[in-house]
Design a protein that fits this description.
42% helix, alpha/beta, globular, homodimer, Aspartate Aminotransferase, domain 2, 3-stranded antiparallel sheet, Aspartate Aminotransferase, domain 1, 14 strands, 393 residues, 7-stranded mixed sheet
Amino acid sequence: MDLPPPFQPPERVLLGPGPSPTAPSVLQALALPTIGHLDPRFLDVMDEVRGMLRTLFGTANELTFPMSGTGSAGMETCLVNLIEPGDAVLVGVNGVFGTRMCEVARRAGAEVTAVEAEWGRALTADDFRRAAGGAKFKLLCAVHAETSTGALTEIAPLRAVADELGAMLVVDCVTSLGGLPVELDAWGVDAAYSGTQKCLSCPPGLAPISFSARAEEALRARKQPVQSWYLDLTLVANYWGGERAYHHTAPINMLYGLHEALRLVLEEGLEQRFARHARNARAFWAGLAAMELELLAPEAERLVPLTSIRVPDGFDAAEVRRFLLEQYAVEIGGGLGPLKGKIWRVGLMGNGSTRKNVELCLSALRLGLIAQGRRPRGDPFDAAQEVYAESVA
Amino acid sequence: MDLPPPFQPPERVLLGPGPSPTAPSVLQALALPTIGHLDPRFLDVMDEVRGMLRTLFGTANELTFPMSGTGSAGMETCLVNLIEPGDAVLVGVNGVFGTRMCEVARRAGAEVTAVEAEWGRALTADDFRRAAGGAKFKLLCAVHAETSTGALTEIAPLRAVADELGAMLVVDCVTSLGGLPVELDAWGVDAAYSGTQKCLSCPPGLAPISFSARAEEALRARKQPVQSWYLDLTLVANYWGGERAYHHTAPINMLYGLHEALRLVLEEGLEQRFARHARNARAFWAGLAAMELELLAPEAERLVPLTSIRVPDGFDAAEVRRFLLEQYAVEIGGGLGPLKGKIWRVGLMGNGSTRKNVELCLSALRLGLIAQGRRPRGDPFDAAQEVYAESVA
């Protein structure tokens, strides 16, 4: 083949469901010279990453570190380490990622019971209780922030249900970590996973996970080895923990990037960061409402970092996305599975959650609608402006 | 916790078993702005990466792309996609990575037969034939370049054995790809995996794999789903292939880095690159011989990118490594498992394979020996110089 030229990425404003825009200092960190995965100085990076992740996860869990794969590898890590063949697992399903948890759990040999809710709606403690029907379960799994729909499921109330079922509580925090409060210890979560390319504004490639002492105990009491060698926490923990034993070669430069991304989160402060995400989301929603666009999730069950907009009747969803990409260099996401062609997904995550991006996206969507013959009556910018004015007052 | 300062890596010359020194333009590529994993422009990067990997692997295999994990994830990908519970698998074991293949295969439900050779020696076709004892196998697995010992096993002769056993041929090319000829099609390899942090001089984090048409067919004829959802090639191939269907969020910036690293390999030219690796290795070996240091693998079975040196009696192997790191900022590796404390492992891989590094490492080792009371009689620099002089003549 001919030698391709060096790649030069086009200008993009990443307002889809992830990746979000990477912070400039994170990009710089990625480009620092590679050192060895067992270098004494690299061990400091690892310890600092673990410490910062504990703060973000709201936990003191010893077993807290990033796995060497993307968010889906984090999901698989939690499930294959805790499931043995024949285990009963209860999974909340209100979108793609709940569905994926069922699939991953089944492949680990679990007997899966799905707790269904309409896509775009939250799941409640009673939904889980009813679906369990009095049976016992090893795991109760829930998606905190369902990236495929924009629905937020409250995790704290699920602890009581998990206790009734004798279950450990496993939570998907991929789109919430760093953008919404996550409090593993206060909520009584036993295992959680996330990704780096959402509210942390680090490129995709790592999956922070955290296991409670109880989950660690279950892990050590396994009768069979974990089916995945690569994701086996009994081995990976020896590298991240005291023995520093070689398991696999950690993705050094990606870990530089995560180190810097976590630093930026803590430098901003978690409360301030959550408030920024909430303010920009509310301004965006106000602008959408002014354009008479409807959101998939009701406000009380709605994610702050990711908003799903119903595609108005008669509109070509993909065409509007293409228009935004070509005319504004703005990337937004489409719907997945049954929601394909029915929603747009807009992420205002991490570095992407700015007033400028809210206005840019409203402007781009407005013109996208006009290009397909629908001129919004309301003024989205005034509506957004009011939210910002309130938050200053 | 207190906010840690930005990380600033120390100066290091990476001459261990990997990671190797990352090329400057690869570091720059890592720092390019993140774009979306479904961006039309990113699809070009993916296609170019696939094309370049085919050239490096010496294959026309359609199913050729990097998995989103490190080399060990590549190993697990090859094994879990091809093994179903109860399958008989024959694995060549002459070091850590053959041992690891047995472990991964067992966890996938295989009945594993190990073909043992002394650590530091190659395995031959007859070793496999004898161990098979006339039985049939689904897979014959071999490590081309055993990173834990520095032994090279010839792959081409194994095709005939695999045919006798009715087996597909699976090969670990982690430390050979880009540093030694790899010819999957000419050798009749059915599945191969590699890593990015050895002779490609890209940071760790991706695992190039390649499956032959026959292996693809076996994959599609599976009775059970692949036990790992994350590594399931029937799904991953839909993202890298025609449908471009979302599976997981690909590690965008790491793929920028691999794109550039592969470009550099092809820009240099494979023949030139292999010759450079061989020349520097021979010069290094000549220098070691002048210092009366013995190598673990006999020359005919020795890897070019990675050299294992026997630690002379009475020497503290770890102390010498520490000396090199502290006095010369040179990282070399130690032995693993039964070779712990018995060998040093020196990688002259990718960007690390230079005359300057050969001389630096000889100099550092010489002083390391002197510091422990053994002054080499021969002059390692003269000996190395002779090799370079020959290659110019």
